[in-house]
């Protein structure tokens, strides 16, 4: 398998207040883990700034302009309950969009079987008209729309295993049968959405987990809800909203997974991609706030992508 990883120093320049869980140290911890020799074959590319018009594939222009208005010239500005911007935050977010769309181009052009985007800020909580949950723009949604518009993808599946429900992705694709959204997440927990009864137009498959459910329940949810839904949908592309805050060390939730669970889930997704999507998988970093848990889990995930 050919795997590409997108990164850029600008992602470290998005600043949040002292003590905020979504901090530059997250990527620094991952970079340390990637120094291991087993990652020497990994092709690492510096992401380029994205085009603002790509944002408009998933968000209205009013949303883009509202974000731009909140970017400070100095210091840190709070523009939603737990969402902050610093002077470089827009450039970081736009570079994340550029990385996500470049990843789509790579898998459709055959330059890679799969791609991991190590960007921040994350994106899956950003709704069509609202930034929230540390997120400005919904990279997964933008990537899916880019695949459809630029490469003619007819069916895109988004699998979100972040411990928090991807309410933004669900909001954007709620009534769109061309995009399948599957999510495993803890419930009750922020943002309060993600019940099994939330089904859109038959394209939304939520698999909520209870606190302390652990590995067995997570894997069973994958086997009973996610895998059958994706199998029946037969996507041309699979996008992963890859949050690692379900790890047992993470301070924001209590699902208590271990790194091997992400290896297992990655393997199942690669099998699904082999069946209908010509191995095309794009994985986007979302949450994960304990540095050790994030580094171990993300590195395990990336290595599984490399091995196929």
Could you explain the architecture of this structure?
This protein has helices at residues 25-33, 52-55, 61-70, 89-109, 139-151, 167-172, 214-233, 259-276, 291-307; strands at residues 3-7, 43-46, 77-80, 83-85, 114-117, 156-160, 179-186, 204-209, 237-242, 281-285. An eight-stranded parallel sheet has the order 2-1-5-10-9-6-7-8, with helices on both faces. Helix 4 (89-109) crosses helix 5. Helix content is 38%, strand content 16%. The chain is an alpha/beta fold and 308 residues long. The protein contains nine helices and ten strands.
Topology:
Layout: E1 3-7, H1 25-33, E2 43-46, H2 52-55, H3 61-70, E3 77-80, E4 83-85, H4 89-109, E5 114-117, H5 139-151, E6 156-160, H6 167-172, E7 179-186, E8 204-209, H7 214-233, E9 237-242, H8 259-276, E10 281-285, H9 291-307
Parallel strand pairs: 1-2, 1-5, 5-10, 6-7, 6-9, 7-8, 9-10
Antiparallel strand pairs: 3-4
Could you give a short description of this structure?
This protein has 308 residues and is α/β, with parallel strands linked by helices.
